[in-house]
Amino acid sequence: MERFDYRRPSSVAEACAALRADPDARIVAGGMSLLPTMKLGLATPSCLIDLCEVAELNKIAIDGNSLVIGAMTCHADVARDPLVRAHLPALAALAGGIGDVQVRYRGTLGGALANNDPAADYPAAALALGADIVTDRRTLSASAFFTDLFETALDVDEVVVAVRFPCPRRAAYAKLPHPASRYAIAGVFVADTADGPRVAVTGAGPLVFRAPAIEAALAGSFAASALADVTLNPDDLNDDPYASAEYRAHQVVVLAKRAVDALA
Questions:
Q1: What is the pLDDT of residues 149-198, one digit of tens each?
Q2: Any idea what DSSP says for residue 263?
Q3: Which of 1, 121, 164, 204 is most buried by a 10 A CB count?
Q4: Could you tell me the fold of the domain covering 5-166?
């Protein structure tokens, strides 16, 4: 690991100023993704700007029909918080299935979204629920936030502050986890919203995506049986030693059925 400076700001404004002052600096939240890449020499930031003491980033609240979660909220807190469990239990269950205990107590919501790992769980929830990612300067819809493999619409000196999750009528998440990392080989988040069914898939492709065919079938009948004849094109899906593209395409439909069955 290369030598680097370390800063611990006490406000979002201070963190953004530090980023603007050093283009090679990087934000560190839980460090679950950044530190391993630094150890491998794949990332060599000149300075780490640690957000752990920025109190405004660690909160959970209800605002109208939305659940607002601060970017520095760790997965374990999302999983066990009474507001999350009451208003968006699918998100609590999703957070409780991330990694292992150590990861859940260190990894953060904002860090996971900003990293945009194609097999991460939160992007599926954000996209299916139509969440808004609030930064220090603007609000981005989930559909605009995730742009490419490990890439987002964030500017280099921009900091995620919070995420606004609209509360659906009901929702569920089902995934096929990697046996070691617990990342999703395929994961499907199904939400029954006021605007109709919304379904987002993670792990199966290079980027989280909506599943229009599944949404259309559920719009006709919100039941697992409605997906009996639905198939997914495997052409653009991941094909690796863990699972073939064809297997992932099959699993996406299977997982969607499981998520819908969980809501029955």
A1: 999 999 999 999 999 999 999 999 999 999 999 999 999 999 999 999 99
A2: H
A3: 204
A4: 3.30.465
